[in-house]
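Section 5.1 Outputs to date
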Amino acid sequence: MSTDPFSDILRFTNAESLVTGGFTAGGAWAIRFPAPDKIKFFAVVKGACWVRIDGEAQPIRFETGDVGLITARRSFVLASDLDVAPVEAMSVFSGTGRSTAILGTGNDFAHIGGHVLLDPASGRLLADVLPPWIHVPAASRQAVSFRWLLDQLVEERAADRPGMQLVAAQLAQLLFIQVLRAHLASSGPMPAGWLRALSDPRIAPALRADARRSRSFMAPG
């Protein structure tokens, strides 16, 4: 059995993180994001906001440096004030090719977000065992490294230097791994299903073959 099943599952599911955009805001504002069809992550890099996730009874307060991960297909709202009617994210970002936007008046809040791509077959090993959402506060012991990663992500996107897209993707991958580490540290050991699937000689070959077939089918001709 592998001594590092966490790395095994990330490799096996082909987990790949991408930064897709962000926005700045000020004053009174609110924005609704549609239910994601991929794992969605976002971080507050400046200021604070409320996060309301469909299906959850209470909103969550996010402060500077907090990171959220949403794995369920639930829409969610980010807002300075939950009484403000949210604008739809698709109307803010689509149609112009923009990946950044400005909401409200002022510049006292900044957000950065992205998603995680998984292999369509083996990816369920990871997606199916994660909770619907994860919130890692910047003040938590596990989030010590987040601040540096977020600062570097913001700097890379602002500077637009050669290789920016690759660097941002690598930083986002590290951020995703740190979020999962924080979750594992607070929720107990890795689910046994991961270990069984990776080590069972009857199950693992079938999963790998299924994954190869899916990649072959989706590859361009």
